[in-house]
Design a protein that fits this description.
434 Repressor (Amino-terminal Domain); 8 helices; mainly alpha; two-stranded antiparallel sheet
Length: about 130
């Protein structure tokens, strides 16, 4: 894209007085950097993604509150992690982490394991056990 044609639409970046660094071609056809305040299609896509994430977080919280899942599921969604990422953060196999999603298994976890999850989510064990404070 030519430097003069880089989009300058109003979006999330404009609200916070920020700009995004992009690559574009200058008048000689060489690549250079330029700043953009946003591009409407990208703003819409990001907004939709954030809405999807918020829906997953709300669903995970409901699952925990109804006793269908452990708080680990909620905090995993809230921290924008998936099973693979969380397993690597806590140093456990994915199948073991998935097992900890069960409320009955979660209730039996010792403080050493709970601390691994708390550290991964940057919260205390008490917060991990009680999501209602959010």
């Amino acid at each position: 894209m030519e430097k003069e044609k880089v989009p300058q639409d109003k979006g999330n970046l404009t609200k916070n007085n920020l700009k995004e660094l992009l690559y574009a071609t200058d008048e000689n056809g060489d690549y250079t950097t330029t700043l953009s305040t946003g591009w409407e299609p990208k703003t819409i896509a990001l907004s939709n993604s954030i809405d999807d994430i918020n829906e997953r977080i709300a669903e995970a919280k409901l699952q925990v509150e109804t006793g269908k899942a452990s708080p680990i599921c909620y905090y995993m969604e809230r921290n924008k992690m998936d099973l693979t990422i969380l397993a690597s953060y806590v140093g456990m196999w994915k199948w073991r982490v998935k097992r900890h999603f069960k409320p009955s298994v979660f209730a039996k976890l010792n403080d050493t394991i709970l601390q691994k999850y708390a550290d991964a989510f940057e919260i205390s064990i008490a917060e991990l056990k009680n999501i209602k404070k959010d």
